[in-house]
Amino acid sequence: MATIHVDGKTYEVNGAHNLLQACLSLGLDIPYFCWHPAMGSVGACRQCAVRQYKDKDDNKGVLVMSCMTPAADQTRIDIDDEEARAFRASVVEWLMINHPHDCPVCEEGGHCHLQDMTVMTGHDRRRYRFNKRTRRNQYLGPFIAHEMNRCITCYRCVRFYNDYAGGTDLGAFGARDNIYFGRYAEGALESPFSGNLTEVCPTGVFTDQSHSDHYTRKWDLQYAPGICHQCAVGCNISPGERYGEIRRIENRYHGEVNSHFLCDRGRFGYGYVNRADRPRVPEWTERPGQEAVTLGVDPALERITGALRQARRIIGIGSPRASLESNHQLLAMVGPENFSTGIESREQACLAMMNRLQETSGLPTPTPREIERHDAILVLGEDPVQSAARLGLNLRQAVLSRREELAEQIGVPAWNAEAVKTLGQDRYHPLHIVWPAPTELDSVAVARHALAPDDIARLGFAVAHAIDPAAPPVDGLDPASQERAGEIAVSLLKAARPLVVSGGSLASEAILEAAGAVARALSRRAAQGGLVLIRREANSTGLSLMGGQTLDWALDELSEGRADAVVVLENDLYQRLPADRVEQALARANTRVVLDHQRTRTAEGADFILPAASFAEGSGTLVNLEGRAQRFFRVFEPAYLRPETRIHESWRWLHTLAAGLRGEAPGDISLDLATRACAGAHPGLAGIVDAAPGPDYRIEGLRLAREPQRYSGRTAMRANLDVNEPRPPQDTDTPFAYSMEGYSGFDRPRQQIPFAWAPGWNSPQAWNKFTDEVGGHLRGGDPGIRLIRPQPGHREYPDPVFDDGATDSSGLRALVLPRVFGGEETSARAEPVRQRMTAPVVILARPDAEALGVRDGDSLTLLGVREGDSLMLFGGPDITVSEQEDWPPGWAGLPAGLLPGLGQGATLTLGKPTGGES
Amino acid sequence: MRKNKVLSVLWLIPASWSLLRTMWMVFMHGFRKRETVNYPEEEVYLPPRYRGRIILTRDPDGEERCVACNLCAVACPVDCISLQKGEKDDGRWYPEFFRINFSRCIFCGMCEEACPTSAIQLTPDFEMGEYQRQQLVYEKEDLLINGPGKDHDYHFYKVAGMAIAGKDKGEAQNEEVPEDVRTLLP
């Protein structure tokens, strides 16, 4: 701690901060542009000038840049000093001389840091009479719009994109007042974190293209605290709605999970919520092949209960992309003995093992932010940037944090970004990646070992043995692998806080067991450390804590006639298992009820579709990969602007349906009751009740406002339907109001913040007002409850067990590689993500390519897939061959999402395209 | 004592005078020009800056002026304006729909003041009575006129730096030609 004197008042601040950070943390406003809490100071914009005095007797002082001055003890500064104020006003005036006078047609307008700072410094008239410099724009892909005229040259974009996120295709060009930020040639920005440029850029140079396509000002959006459903990290988001559509996803600050940044899948993958083909009313198909008819809520429920009552046995298939509440209501309706999680058996086994390892491996699971404080990392059989992108960014920071360590040794403060970067050069904390395909983190890794799944596990066990000789050795390991294992072990042992990262991407229990063995070995040898296990979907962890049979079991029960009705909850079964198997099982059922918010293949084959709420219209609880239960809240009431819609949360549908099956009146159901029912029935989930405040939560007697105070058009937006305005929807489930009436301020600490706004702070920089210190934690505490805790106890090492390593001689085995864009079912239905998907590539080893008679860049067609005894025949699509030097022979790498239902390790028959027909 | 009694009724003199004067003035009004007009047979004169029915205008080139910036909507104290931004092929922003609920409008003129492009203007027309309140909801086709309204010259895109078809970067007011970033020459 340090004592500083600002404008004659004395404050206690963190002495490791710079003055700007310290003053902002105190709630004092100093204008700034180039400084960013996550990226430190470079002193480029000269905006944050204050007057600093040598000591008590100095009454002249000098102007200093507060971001470049340490908050040392007994520092005396004046923010409200006449000369400093004049200096800051001139700086903004200089920055504005080339500004293009286009705020009305700028997407940043209304949440623009430059607007805020210009108002804060008092600049409002252009005095400069000469011409403005102009610059051309570039096409930067479907996510980001570019308007270079608005640039103020703060360098935040390249500092984030290159230094923080490791991108390589955005740069600063030109010299002096002719600086240009862009790509060397037009084209989509390659980094999966490019979307953060829209929040990092203090002006409108980089704006959200997907938002611009249906643009609404920040003050006109209706928000609720959301949780991203596009992967298992559980980033906190602020989805904004207008006219019954989600218009934009913004980062919602969470001190432990996503802090300031999101990945592009989460930020731009929301389009599926707005799809025109979404089921919005219940639908009934009397006979397969017939046109579906729409039904009202009561007739639909009556028909469904009628049909289900005739069934001998109903199977309920849940979903890892649905909330815990919905899954539990389904489980309660069909009974635990008839409930399947809807997860394929190998994945489910992996999920169970991951939960077990988190409890028993001996190493705790760090939060994403804690990951950044580890100093040696082993990534075993996982590609974090593709499967859990935000974690990839955390891992990168962990590797880069070696710079700060070096800086500390010579007394350079960590916030002095450029000095720290220059000092560090390319010295990183060791990162070892064991993964067959190239990853985004390769550039900062010691080495990447391209191995087949079983060999990854073997190497993992060998590392465990090298760390702790008590761990079982691996038989028949070649000397090269032995040496690699030794190197990895040495670098993990040298570290103070080693981290092991693994996950279920390769659906291999052996790999997870190996990662667990390394973690156990480290827990016996090292003081501190961590184990991160990556799951695939938003609620995979939660559903595996709840438990249930596998999807394979459910399909067997149906196809073998032991059950004749099925209720599928927000799940496209064709994405999980081979199509013929799913089709055969569903065909045997007499009644197929699907609750979903997407028109999936499963929904299309159903007798009844009930329109379920997506994350935008529904509330519920998810558990992320660290075991943190987090609640997401409905953003808007769809029936307000589209009265014909009958969208409800799945847990509401299922509760009513269950009551109907029992022949009872529906009874009460609310979010609170649904959550409590779930928590009460599953001891592992008992904590979820406390994940967020209940519907009675008030601040100073007020509900929390979903809409900013300036929300416009209330009396006109619905006037085309009826000039008589109905009462706004009332929300009895949550503490939020569908109104601007309610609390939306920053001074009362709270966890659930629909949108960040503070007087004078309209941009995302307003989050600084909600945190205990800038870049720290929310003052009300970071939301969520950790459910999985390490259990004490001494445990033995598992014996190395491998999957059947035998390669099938009849063909190549599929190695499904996770991918950010297109690798996840729902976001792959969003238009910008579809545009951003890369062309499908099959990665082959050279000998395999030669055997097939193809070379790099040729096309191949997938002719058939054999998995166990199921055989599927394909006539396409054409896939480009990519030969890779170190690719494990016998395997063919295919991107996830290309062939729905393709299992890890299935045998492929590939052939040259015949041209035309198949 | 008697003198006091006489004095106490002296007030009658100014009072009677005031009464008579008033009667005279009222009488004389009978010969003045009538202020009341025989509306609706006779038209009412409204000054050009009268705040009546709201219109959307076009720029001198005949293009829609409104760029859907939403400032009118946010300035509106009764929240009776709602619109949606769209983008034309030439790069212009325009309102996909523009709706004013005149049953709520209080004709305060804040929208006109907020408008950065002179698009939304109030006109000297108050004849908006309807039997059906629903008819008071005006859509863009009811609001958009074929002229510049009170502001004859202003052309937003000629001032703003955003490029649109027919007006490239560097062709707006006070603009240099676009920089060549591939040169380092001074």
From TrEMBL, chain B:
It is found in: Cell inner membrane; Cell membrane. InterPro entries: 4Fe4S_Fe-S-bd (IPR017896), 4Fe4S_Fe_S_CS (IPR017900), NADH_quinone_OxRdtase_chainI (IPR010226). [4Fe-4S] cluster 2 binds at C76, C105, C108, C111. It is an enzyme of class 7 (translocase). It comes from Marinobacter flavimaris. Its main location: membrane. PANTHER family: NADH DEHYDROGENASE [UBIQUINONE] IRON-SULFUR PROTEIN 8, MITOCHONDRIAL, NADH DEHYDROGENASE UBIQUINONE IRON-SULFUR PROTEIN 8, MITOCHONDRIAL. NDH-1 shuttles electrons from NADH, via FMN and iron-sulfur (Fe-S) centers, to quinones in the respiratory chain. The immediate electron acceptor for the enzyme in this species is believed to be ubiquinone. Couples the redox reaction to proton translocation (for every two electrons transferred, four hydrogen ions are translocated across the cytoplasmic membrane), and thus conserves the redox energy in a proton gradient. Binds 2 [4Fe-4S] clusters per subunit. It is a peripheral membrane protein. Belongs to the complex I 23 kDa subunit family. It catalyses: a quinone + NADH + 5 H(+)(in) = a quinol + NAD(+) + 4 H(+)(out). [4Fe-4S] cluster 1 binds at C66, C69, C72, C115. GO terms for biological process: aerobic respiration. GO terms for cellular component: plasma membrane. Its EC number is 7.1.1.-. NDH-1 is composed of 14 different subunits. Subunits NuoA, H, J, K, L, M, N constitute the membrane sector of the complex. NDH-1 is composed of 13 different subunits. Subunits NuoA, H, J, K, L, M, N constitute the membrane sector of the complex. Keywords: 4Fe-4S, Cell membrane, Iron, Iron-sulfur, Membrane, Metal-binding, NAD, Oxidoreductase, Quinone, Repeat, Translocase, Ubiquinone. One of its GO terms (molecular function) is quinone binding. Its cofactor is [4Fe-4S] cluster. Residues 56-86, 96-125 form the 4Fe-4S ferredoxin-type domain. This is NADH-quinone oxidoreductase subunit I.
